[in-house]
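Q: what does this look like with LV4SOB2L bound?
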Amino acid sequence: MISPILITGASQRLGLAMADSLLEEGYTVVVTYRTLRPTISTLKDKGAIVLHADFSTETGIDRAIDDIKAVSESYRAIIHNASDWAQEKDHDNKHDLFNRMMNVHALAPYRINLALSQSLSMQGGFSDIIHMTDYVQDTGSEKHIAYAASKAALQNLTLSFAKKLAPKVKVNSIAPALLMFNEGDDDAYKEKALKKSLLETVPGAEEAVKAMHYLLNSEYITGQTLHLNGGRNLK
Ligand SMILES: NC(=O)C1=CN([C@@H]2O[C@H](COP(=O)(O)OP(=O)(O)OC[C@H]3O[C@@H](n4cnc5c(N)ncnc54)[C@H](OP(=O)(O)O)[C@@H]3O)[C@@H](O)[C@H]2O)C=CC1
Ligand SMILES: Nc1nc2c(c(=O)[nH]1)N=C([C@H](O)[C@@H](O)CO)CN2
């Protein structure tokens, strides 16, 4: 088997778009999903290897690592995309919320990167780790406090793993702001959200797909962050 690319949380939206694009380009793709959706069957029909994984607990992370390692002894890349965009107002138990945010966004990527570090370095050429972080890693978020803190932790993991795994493995972040709306976002929210960036647009998943391919094909980028935010930081 050609060394696969692993994408976590690929049953919808950005992860699904990235997995589809990699399959179209002929890569071997391994995806994880938490909820079994028709999209997972479609990815499997296209040749992807699909694994169930829930990263909210240490047991779930342990199981996922065992399953991922059982698929292949070597990996071309890992894209840590799985994410739970949780708000404090929706969760009474803040202790559990904070632990879940850190498990999904920081502990899982940390444990998986350490467990697969040898698998990544077995490549003839470069291998890659891509962390899907978030614009709020640098700003915080008053409504997604634990989420933002966990994405900041993931961003710091990019710097540490870039140092630890060089020169064979490149490690970078993609930090989106608003790339896609969610079902249920009303017109008032959409109008307000669009105004947050200079470019006042919501580009869709393809913007993340292009950034992913740019990093995978780079020979001189590591420890960096691709900010996909329409100039929001200058507004
Ligand atoms: N979309 C955007 O505009 C932005 C996205 N980002 C980041 O980009 C990445 C992709 O965004 P987007 O596609 O919107 O993400 P989604 O909100 O669609 O989440 C991606 C996947 O993560 C999975 N997931 C959630 N919780 C868990 C868990 N406990 N264990 C395992 N998997 C889990 C879900 O799986 P399932 O559906 O199978 O349950 C989901 O399909 C994320 O890391 C996100 O934080 C950052 C800023 C903006
Ligand atoms: N896991 C997710 N993380 C984030 C999402 C999402 O839909 N799923 N969406 C956003 C917003 O687009 C935000 O950037 C708008 O300002 C952030 N993170």
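Residues 83, 85, 134-135, 177-178, 182, 193 surround LV4SOB2L (ligand 2) (CB under 6 Å). The CA atoms of residues 188 and 194 lie 10 Å apart.
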